[in-house]
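Quick one, tokens below:
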């Protein structure tokens, strides 16, 4: 396969991953709004939305950040159906409407897809495993140190993905490892906090400075990446336990707050104001709130937080920090302004961000203040925002099907 054809293949399937992930995003928001439990909604949000988009963009970004080209251009085409079946199966298991055989098949499918992803990226960077070669051009030579630090996160991200994907299969087979619980919130943290968040930190510290025409101090990148790598392992190994859990919560909070500081500083330096920027800033704010709640859970669990605080934490993490970051970045990669369809453009994109941020704010305020009258409207406003986001991006994809980005 020629280089041009290989690039087009990777791009096409990367975009397909993002498009499917957006569909899961809408489904997740609707499921939460109608009152589905966390066991059913978490797979839609984490496996379906966050990780599908992460997989799609990682297939195009990670090789370039390691100065390589994807070694197996058709790997995303194999991975996508496996990941989708795994996410849908996990949702079905969470609703309690499926059999043990289907549950086993879904976790096996998810693990198989994850192995395709990890194997492909490992083979791609096999002669540059630490990311010392960054693909950074001479005009960005001053960013090279920070780029190398950010690249260090990638091998750990892949390790978290394999462990977090293998544990549910172990649980389905009746195998219970002694170090990390084989199912439940601890495993979800390995995927959300261990796989998705550090990749957001790493890619964000490389991508956002270029998008905003600004710089982030390498020392801050080092702190964010190191804390973001170590924290999830401790959280999962001693979930809601003792000293290890508290240390893990402190490290995770350090990474989230450090990344928020980096984003705010980049925004301060930049004079570029484009659609999606408010989503990224809002995501940074959500990250800081997650850090506060996480520290509260770890160090003052009996201090009077309502039971719904755990739902607020989960929604801020998946829909706020991870979700709004994804939305802001995808609006940069796929600018709504290029759409020619009537009613689709920057204003529609801005409206989607406003609805999502306002909806999440109302929901979280209602959950933390025990005001149920705010929660329902907030969730349905998030559904409206997610639907607008989907319409905008899907329209751009359809109209610009020949893009090589």
């Amino acid at each position: 396969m020629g280089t041009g054809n290989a690039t087009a293949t990777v791009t096409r399937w990367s975009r397909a991953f993002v498009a499917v992930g957006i569909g899961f995003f809408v489904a997740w928001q609707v499921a939460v709004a109608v009152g589905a439990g966390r066991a059913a909604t978490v797979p839609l949000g984490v496996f379906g939305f966050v990780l599908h988009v992460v997989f799609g963009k990682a297939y195009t970004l990670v090789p370039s950040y390691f100065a390589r080209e994807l070694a197996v251009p058709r790997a995303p085409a194999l991975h996508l159906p496996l990941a989708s079946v795994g996410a849908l199966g996990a949702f079905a298991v969470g609703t309690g409407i499926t059999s043990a055989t289907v549950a086993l098949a879904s976790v096996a499918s998810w693990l198989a897809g994850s192995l395709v992803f990890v194997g492909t990226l490992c083979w791609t960077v096999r002669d540059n495993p630490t990311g010392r070669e960054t693909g950074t051009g001479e005009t960005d030579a001053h960013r090279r140190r920070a780029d190398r630090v950010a690249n260090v996160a990638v091998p750990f991200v892949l390790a978290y993905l394999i462990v977090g994907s293998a544990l549910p299969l172990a649980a389905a087979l009746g195998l219970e490892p002694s170090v990390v619980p084989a199912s439940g919130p601890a495993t979800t943290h390995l995927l959300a906090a261990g796989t998705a968040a550090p990749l957001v930190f790493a890619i964000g510290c490389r991508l956002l400075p270029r998008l905003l025409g600004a710089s982030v101090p390498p020392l801050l990148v080092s702190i964010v990446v190191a804390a973001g790598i170590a924290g999830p392992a401790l959280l999962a190994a001693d979930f809601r336990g003792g000293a290890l859990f508290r240390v893990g919560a402190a490290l995770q909070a350090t990474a989230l707050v450090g990344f928020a500081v980096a984003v705010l500083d980049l925004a301060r330096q930049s004079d570029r104001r484009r659609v999606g920027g408010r989503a990224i800033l809002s995501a940074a704010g959500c990250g800081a709130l997650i850090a506060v709640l996480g520290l509260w859970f770890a160090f003052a669990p009996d201090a009077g937080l309502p039971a719904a605080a755990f739902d607020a934490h989960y929604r801020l993490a998946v829909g706020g920090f991870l979700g709004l970051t994804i939305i802001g970045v995808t609006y940069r990669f796929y600018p709504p302004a290029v759409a020619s369809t009537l009613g689709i453009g920057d204003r529609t994109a801005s409206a989607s961000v406003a609805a999502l941020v306002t909806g999440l704010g109302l929901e979280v305020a209602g959950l933390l203040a025990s005001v149920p009258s705010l929660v329902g409207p907030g969730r349905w406003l998030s559904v409206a925002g997610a639907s607008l986001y989907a319409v905008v991006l899907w329209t751009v994809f359809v109209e610009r099907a020949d893009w090589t980005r």
